[in-house]
Amino acid sequence: SSGINAEYGTAMKCCWLLLLFVSSVIARNLNNIEHTPLHKRNADNVLLDVRDNHVKFSGFSHAYDSDIKVYANVSQIANGDTVAISWENKDAGLFDMVAIYTPPSREIQDYLDFRYVTDTKNWKKDHGTFTEVLFNMRADYELRYLSIDSKQHATVKAKYTISFPDNEPMHGHIAVTGRPGEMRVMWGSAKLGNARVKYSQSADMKGAITAPAASTTYTADDLCGPRANTTSPLMFQDPGYFFTSLLKGLKPGVRYYYTYGTDQATSKVASFLAAPYPETKVAVTKFIGYGDMGVYYPPYNGDSLGAAAVTRALEREAAAGGLDFVLHFGDISYARGRGYIWDQFMTQMTTLSEQVPYMVGVGNHEYDHVSGGDKDPSGAPENGFHPEWGNYGDDGGGECGVPTSHRYISPDNGNGVFWYSFDYGLVHVIQISSENDFRPGTRQYEWLEKDLKSVDRASTPWVVVTSHRPLYTSQEQHSDHIVGLHMIM
Questions:
Q1: What does pTM read for this prediction?
Q2: DSSP 269
């Protein structure tokens, strides 16, 4: 990742210009692991791959036993809450488990995830407790105690329901539009309603202005291929609705407070600083840029590993003030067709993205596809960009950019989330897509050429161009080097 301060210096008196390219590296090792919904680990404390987390039952039945119990310390939670889940059974078997289902109507074999009772410290004392972070997937959770016999027959012995607030607004984030005095607020929820944003210059929301919100969603049929279009607890699950509201008339540099949702279910108050106008004199523009993020839960306290450490550092930077925006250019959640990962990533980023514009671009792991090209929101011909010299495959797991395009609305001067530009203070930012054809004569190339020619270097002496794939790479990946050479040429 890169953190950059763009400043006026003495060199600027001579109309000096720096063109900065920021490129990410395609992750090929750690992020090949597709974590389970509960982020389970194996005996070596390495994240367990969800593809290795399946138990095949020979049969299943229900035989509730009042002496066997499964329960949690709470019956209603909010998105991302930590829950203590307990079980009791005097005759617990070695392969008995507590399985988690959402929605509760799922059949026994269609669990979201599970824990063996033997994973708890006191299991030989006929009881145990494990702690989990649960995410609102727009339906209640049901815990089931499954007794597994030697023939892998599963019997439900007890169950317990955990619910979420009705129509809880989640995953709030903001983005600049490229137009002075505006900010876009986006979020998700389970249901449609009279969605809106209320915003004010006062922390107590006095004199708040109401801005209506538009909604959108997608179904499994809108996605380009498997796994993304396969209905399953671990693949496609109803994403609910995505809302976007445009705030106008904002004064540059002023802090605005806002809530999003409906009158019946609204978010906590968040705030942001309005972007400067083109004529606003600023000394510094500060932003952070990176690619390849993903999700890391738990441990998620302090400076734990991976994405959690990065997220906490970003939150601290934003809380300290002066962070104008964040650029995330590709490989956003690493969902690759697994809907539950999008829910976890959006939750992970909320504290940051509610207060700082979070501007994204696409990478191979949310876009590249080999089927369903007519559903590709970028408008790419056939099944996307697959030059003979490139290493473009099916890394998006069938998503082809659809989940990304619904969650993130970009400035409308390009091609949605795929390529666009905006001015902020001293910087003109251009996000391009290395996953779409970038060669001379293409839509993207011609747009980029036109955009670069339009830059007002007196107002924005810094030009930053982002791309998911690197122009230059130190990785021992010859195929990445070849792609970089073609991007340079």
A1: 0.93
A2: P
